[in-house]
């Protein structure tokens, strides 16, 4: 029906309403109650018609207020996912996402598009808590994911919803040196020697730096030291740090651009990615190391709001497949899939770490944070002692 036909029909309904209202007033009040009741009923029905169906509009309004109450997949419409991740995963996700969307389209006849955001893990965590409506978060450490959980956005037990306790990518720590390694830096103990300076970020502000601290502490414990020996060693090592940068990016700039220090602690995957971009980097992977584990999680509150839980969960599970894990391995991450990890191509690329510690050795991230990084904990004690000396 054209616009003018709609207008004409509406005018006719309005005139009918006026006529009936006038008719109602012409009735003699002495008419029977039944007659008045019948006229009133007719009048009510006609006025309802004249209102344009407000009852239906009200229902539609409620539906509009919660447009994703029905899952997008059930409605057969296109669906969008928002992925928030830490910066160095970008290359992997850019290769994985098209593979997933193609498979989903083939199996479900539904288009899936992605909005992505990459940045420092800590800043990404704060952004999600402050309102960035991520459907999926892939972060540098489980401590960040736990913060989003504590904010009420992720349900407890998220790490048990997928394989490998929620860890979907991993790396190890590397010691980057000056070309030719003039100071002969090969192990963690070399960082505590007189005359050696190395660069790392501040564990109080950087997630990467917390891994660096744990790598140093772990090396002392694995060498047979007790906590007193470990504290002494880590304190000596941090006395050789000329500047604690805010984050890993600033640490990298301090080492490469400002030429500070003889060594830099960094992720193995960042170095491999830099080499793939044509940069020449001198580095070693210590035989005693820490497994830098990166978790993935669905943000429950947001996927329920957006009605895209089914697709979000499917994407997370897809990241564990050999196809996806191969893409992580190509850009520097150690695979969590054993089939991929044991392939000749991957084994040739990644040196074997003889003694590998994990954050679970310290009781998990909650315990490690409390023991090492909270105000007044071991790291603060080390820094206070450094300032007094």
UniProtKB/TrEMBL annotation:
It is found in: Periplasm. GO terms for biological process: sulfate transmembrane transport. It holds the Pfam family SBP_bac_11. The keyword Chloroplast does not apply. One of its GO terms (molecular function) is molecular carrier activity. One of its GO terms (cellular component) is periplasmic space. The chain crosses the membrane at residues 29-49. InterPro entries: Thiosulph/SO4-bd (IPR005669). Keywords: Membrane, Periplasm, Signal, Transmembrane, Transmembrane helix, Transport. Belongs to the prokaryotic sulfate-binding protein family. This is Sulfate-binding protein. It comes from Brunnivagina elsteri CCALA 953.
